Amino acid sequence: MSSIPLHRLPTAPERLAEVLAAITPQLAATAAEHDAHGTFAHDNFALLHASGLIAQVIPQAHGGGGADLATARRIIAAVAYGDAATALVLTMTYLQHRALGRADTRWPAHLRQQVFSTALNEGALINALRVEPDLGTPARGGLPGTVATRVGDHWRIHGRKLYSTGSPALRWLAVWARTDEAQPRVGVFLVPRPLPDTPGIRIEHTWNHLGLRASGSHDVVLEDVAIPLDLAVDIRPAGEWADNGAHVDQQAWMAVLLGSLYDAVAQAARDWLVQFLNARAPANLGAPLATLPRMQEAAGEIAGALRTNHVLLDHAAEAADAGAPLSTTDSGLLKYTVTSNAIRAVELALQVSGNHGLSRHNPLERHYRDVLCSRIHTPQNDSILLAAGRTALGV
Fold first, then answer.
1. Whole-prediction pTM
2. Where is coiled-coil annotated (predicted)?
3. What is the pLDDT of residues 328-356, one digit of tens each?
4. What values do phi and psi take at 156, rounded to 5?
5. Residue 185, CB-side half-sphere exposure with 13 Å CA sphere
6. In angstroms, rounded to a whole number, what is the distance separating the alpha carbons of residues 112 and 329?
7. What letter does residue 327 receive in the DSSP assignment?
């Protein structure tokens, strides 16, 4: 079982509130520095592990916190309020833990337990590596260029994966690849990565992004990486991956957690703006900017956008936890609406704060760069609206 005693996993709501209140300012204290230098915040994940948060979504039967979506949303929001890049890495691990904890997973039981145990004992992170230079995102179809070749009692894997969030610290790589068989099978090959180095796995530090600069979303190159045959944890004929293996529960979790992340970024921007408008009192005005109707109107519009997000995210989490997750189309619309509202809220904050908001001495410009990244997560806006339009039109 875990080296983290169960009493240290903050499963009780009041205990979880204490933990989150303590770690959020610690994460925020180093966020600007990691953003400026594009460095991965290893210490943040040591803190999350010590606080029992990395194992929260692991089922209680496996020693974890057994968190439902409402609880996971709460954690991701608190982490993102402090450091959005750290929250994105944690979100990816939560999504993998959720998928492995479902009864319909095809992963062998002993491998699921191994992934869970390393998360409990070591704070081990896991993410799916799917995007490729030629394939792009698998959500838009196509066979992966990453190839697994069977050689004796091993698979040998060759390929390059882009945007591999958390790559400097991932303990497990869930690699999307195809076999080199005459009729290729496609799916997930689990590649263990005992840190710091694993033969055949190379991290190319290509992530030099506008936002979420500390997420470590670099290229991962796999060069003749050997894994045992049973680490082909879910491979199927390509035709069996209808809708790329979309699962309504998984889509609901992804939409809520990513929505909560970017909504929290917008909340942090809102809180900075409130403080700024109340503190800033130009000499020609003789009163804080907060007394101006124009500022009050902007603050009201921001409040409306974030209140809408709060209601939508809470409803979606409650529905999923009640066993009735939103449909895949509605989950997409949730992501679209929440992230659009978050972007709009931060844009308004920038408009009314002027040069102060754009200065790197203040966090608002970082929040803006981070919140813009919400548009690129699968499903992307064009796919969301196309699916919703077809549903509305019945075609």
1. 0.95
2. none
3. 999 999 999 999 999 999 999 999 999 99
4. -120, 125
5. 12
6. 29
7. P
